[in-house]
Amino acid sequence: MNGIPYAREYKVTLCHVCSYVCPEDAHECPRCDSPVHRRKPNSLTRTWAFLIAGLIFYIPANLLPVMYTTMLGSSSENTIMSGVIEFAEGGSWDIAILIFIASVVVPCIKFLVLGLMLVTCQRRSTWAMRERSRLFRFIELIGYWSMLDVLVVALVAALVQFRGLSTIEPRLGILFFGLVVVMTMLAAMTFDPRLIWDAEVEDVR
Amino acid sequence: MSDNTLPPSPPTRPQVKARKVRVSLVWLVPIVAALIGLSMVVHDFLNVGPKVVVSFLTAEGLEAKKTQVKYKNVVIGIVTDIELSDDRTHVLASIDLNQSAVPFTRADTQYWVVRPRIGAHGVTGVDTLLSGAFIGADAGSSEETKKDFTGLETPPAVTFGEKGKRFILHTDDLGSLDIGSPVYFRRIQVGQVVAYELAKDGKGVDVEIFVGAPNDQYVLTDSRFWNASGVDVTLGASGLKVSTQSMASILSGGIAFREPKYSPDAKIADGNAEFKLFEDQATALAPPDGEPKYIRMRFNQSLRGLVVNAPVDFLGVNIGRVVSVDLDYDAATGTFPGIVGAVIYPQRLGAANDKLQQQAGAGDDEEKTSRVLGQFIERGLRAQVRTGNLLTGQLYVAMDFDPKAPKVSYNAKARPLEIPTVPGSFDKLQEQLQAFVDKLGKIPLDDLAKNLNGSLIELQKTMKQVNSDVLPQMRGALQQAQKTLGTANETLSDDSPARQQLGQAMEEVQRTARSVRVLTDFLSRHPESLIRGRSGDAAPGSYKGSSSSREIAPEPAQ
């Protein structure tokens, strides 16, 4: 299409680990012995699987309480959304927005973007390829921060342990939230962004 | 794009199948996720317990999704919603009970709000100060179940399943009793008041008490219950009497019970047995009084100090009490006699009453009493108002046989029965006092005062004489004495010539004494000198300076 040839035209492929140019039919990199594929194997299917698992875990993560707070004898269990609402009603808009972004907006964006990637790649759409790959890099970037909630709960539960006065304990919801994050990260890892560009040429697989 | 997917040839089919099998391994992840989610849903679904709605007067302290329902401090449910009833008189709290709390849907289950309460019995629910109120529940025993309950406003005093018996007490008014007021047996708390309500006809109060096992066995069929509320201070003809059960009962009231001292065939009372609640211990433990009889007495004297409920004595036995003190007007004499009405209980006479009943013969009860009384009055039975307590002036009515009393005619038909009276002992005392005062009045105080006055004038004259004559002479004598003493003082002073001469004389005597001692000394050593005279070498010791006498050290001669 443009002047630069594709790797497959030369029957070569790139090692993911050491970037060595390997022959196309090699299963292992001659230099570093790591497995060599032209594309990540089964990328779309695996991403779909992880994405769906993440979606399923996202339901209990939101419905189950994530934190159990006892303060001066009054105990309460908070789900993610009830915590956000409590902060918002208490006037702490900044904290409410922070928690809302970290635990609701970010996972939802990840689901949407990954779903969009998968659908467009499966349909071999050539629509907005550059923007889509930029989106994917953005997803990988914010992926680092999606464990924020889990960290906060773990930290607070470990620190606030004043028997009788106030205690904070983690609840099952935070486990599911952690699984959501793990699943979406796995989904993002198994997705091969080069598949976006494969629509340019026909029959890559 | 589509020209790649060329008509599939039959040989490619198995290849597609093989691929599908390989792919499905990754799908285990979402399947496992779905299974976990599903299992939780199923678990939740199985754990959903019954829902009930409890109505309270106020939702104070209750909070939807926060307030818990507890039984023996174990959480058995949570309030999911609080809303007003349709007529806005109640709040309805919807409660989700746990799966295990099914017994709490029984029709006689009780729900109440546990709030901090401060009462005479102590402070309860302190933990709720910090944690907020919670709903207490107590499962019933009924076979039926229901969904709508009416919550209690105060915690039930006795929880379900506690062993013991309930009894009903009838009383005229509630006094200071309340739910939770203690029930004492020999000053040990054995139960409490669990409920009270007005009697059906409104003429009294039914108090329900609960006596816990094993102390319920002490409630016998003839046990007497009395109101032990507060401090019972009685200031009567018999003096000041204070009685109470315990500090708590002073504050909050209480009930005490006990069997009478002599109760030969008492059995353990059954649950829900009914008793009368007496005003105080004395009336409760008194033997049954039987039918009261009304009598009337007419006193020609002041009845100050005679009050309603004052005792009526018969030969020292309290047989009744005064119920009314009124004035009458006697037009013939123009005086105001006092009319005293009293009830007497003949049964209090015990064995005497039985014999009198036999003696009285036939006729109805009133007649018999009247006849017996007539005989007594014939023999001199008279009523008299006496002072029971000199300090307080309380009076009581005493009935005694006075053989010297003037005869009176007794009207056996008169109703109420009238008992003749004689003047009270206090009147006699008053008369004696009057006589004493009269005697005091007869003393010739004026003459006494006159005599005393003359003596005083005489005394005054004497004193004047002493002042004018004796005192100036006394003064001269004193001055003379002073002078004499001054002269003596001068004579004896240190630097007077007499004193100096005396000193010199004393020295002279001293010297003489010394020379005599030296001489005797010399002589004792040289007795021959008396005959031969002093030899040359035998000088007196004092001149040699080594005499055996220590006192005679050589002294400078004056």
From TrEMBL, chain A:
Localization per Swiss-Prot or TrEMBL: Cell inner membrane
GO annotation, cellular component aspect: plasma membrane
Pfam families per UniProt: PqiA
Transmembrane portions of the chain: 48-68, 95-120, 141-160, 172-191
Keyword check for rRNA-binding: no
Keywords from the UniProt entry: Cell inner membrane, Cell membrane, Membrane, Transmembrane, Transmembrane helix
Record's protein name: Paraquat-inducible protein A
Organism of origin: Pseudomonas graminis
From TrEMBL, chain B:
Region annotation (Disordered) ranges: 529-558
Segments traversing the membrane: 21-42
Family matches, as InterPro entries: Mce/MlaD, PqiA-PqiB_transport
Domain Mce/MlaD: 49-136, 164-224, 293-401
Keywords assigned by UniProt, alphabetized: Cell inner membrane, Cell membrane, Membrane, Transmembrane, Transmembrane helix
GO cellular component assignments: plasma membrane
Subcellular location(s) of the protein: Cell inner membrane
Domain of life: Bacteria
Protein name, as recorded: MCE family protein
